[in-house]
Predict the structure.
Amino acid sequence: MTFASKITIARICLVPVYVALAFYYGHTVKAGQPDESLRWWALGFFVLAASSDGIDGWVARHFNQCSKFGAYIDPIADKALLLSGVITLSLVDWGAPGWRLPLWFAAIVVLRDCIILGGIKILYVNHREVKIVPHWTGKITTVAQMFAIGWVMLRVTYLRPEIPCLIAAFFTIWSSVAYIRQGQRILRGRPRGGRA
């Protein structure tokens, strides 16, 4: 296993630590005695995990450690972190009552990933080579979703969390449509091995 892949696995291991800290902090908020150290620890672990995404990619490219395992595990680690952040912050308050990501936003994020996974399954069943090229809207979606998560965790209170969530939801839906169209183009192409 390459060093880059070990960094990726470490990112996966940081996810449950972040979730536990986030839930414990939410519990202290609910009890009326928020423990701010828990909030900062949760934020720190989330930032550490998120930044490791760029680090493992740099290590893989710079030291020629690109591997099939790394290409497989990296998006899983990314999704584990992002979905954990969105779902956790939609279930617990991180401030005044209601200071959380709205449930409708979490539903949109989860539905998008289900659509993508379902589309990949359809392509596989129809003997199509699954080469989903990352679309620019997908990259913006990731940034917008991370921004919404950060908005809640940093408690930027001059605007409600719904505002960054609306922006992120727009790009999430847009990228869903882009990936559906990409999948449709692949489905119309030739099957693997030239089968009819």
